[in-house]
Design goal:
It is built from 12 helices and no strands. The protein is mostly helical and 255 residues long.
């Protein structure tokens, strides 16, 4: 099962997903099928995928930080509520069917993409005060923490939009914080999945090689191209994520 072709496929999938995850989010919709294609149970694939995502997030954070785009103070404030939600999401992932909330999340992603396309300034030129909105956004980031603990895929999109709506139109700065939070919440989730023995380390570490390289490349592209590239990636990935979630749910229902 674990032949050379499979390893190569995991590295390639990890590389592409690392770029997508760093710039927008949703790369796990590529890596999860790659892990399951060769026999991993969906719950094991969900846990194993966290190892690869951890590497791409770490690479992206290092790149953004070295370029001076990581606001540590704001990142730490937003990390707390997100981390608090992760254990709840992981327990849901362990004990509930993996498709329990997919149609709801899919519809939300599609609706948000449509809203952003109709009014891009909603997140690129917002002038709201981060300090004024921070307290009211605590439940939002807690809910995002539950989501990332449950399914991981697409959580970066939610983080990026939430931060852009509450802290101005600096998508590049928000992206740096998104990857920082992503690294920490993925670390916590991975520890929980490891505790429940839901990680296959060999394929996870193999895919992590590609994710690590993709994280560096994605961060460099985001820094070079700025808000325009991030916004374009964000809308495309949101639509693809929404269609994927809704389509998967319909397939299960029809089948």
């Amino acid at each position: 099962m674990w032949d050379g072709f499979y390893y190569l496929m995991l590295i390639v999938a990890g590389f592409i997903a690392g770029i997508v995850n760093t710039i927008a989010g949703g790369g796990s919709f590529l890596t999860l099928p790659a892990l399951m294609m060769f026999g991993l149970d969906p719950k094991v694939a969900n846990g194993t995928n966290r190892i690869a995502v951890l590497c791409s997030s770490g690479a992206a954070v290092a790149t953004f930080n070295n370029a001076g785009h990581l606001d540590r103070s704001r990142a730490n404030r937003l990390t707390v509520p997100t981390l608090l939600g992760v254990p709840v999401g992981v327990l849901l992932a362990v004990y509930l069917p993996s498709g329990a909330f997919e149609p709801v999340f899919g519809a939300i992603f599609i609706a948000m993409a449509v809203v952003l396309m109709m009014n891009p300034k909603r997140i690129t030129e917002s002038k709201r005060s981060d300090s004024d909105s921070q307290r009211s956004m605590f439940p939002v980031f807690f809910a995002i923490g539950i989501y990332v603990g449950f399914i991981q895929a697409g959580f970066g999109i939610l983080l990026l939009i939430a931060m852009s709506l509450t802290g101005g139109g600096d998508l590049l700065g928000a992206n740096a914080i998104k990857n920082w939070i992503g690294f920490l919440v993925t670390l916590i989730a991975a520890l929980f999945f490891a505790f429940y023995d839901l990680i296959q380390w060999l394929p996870g570490l193999t895919m992590a090689i590609g994710n690590l390289m993709g994280g560096f490349v994605g961060a460099k592209l985001a820094i070079k191209k700025g808000n325009k590239l991030i916004f374009g990636f964000l809308v495309v990935v949101m639509i693809a994520t929404g269609l994927k979630l809704v389509g998967t749910s319909l397939y299960r229902w029809i089948g």
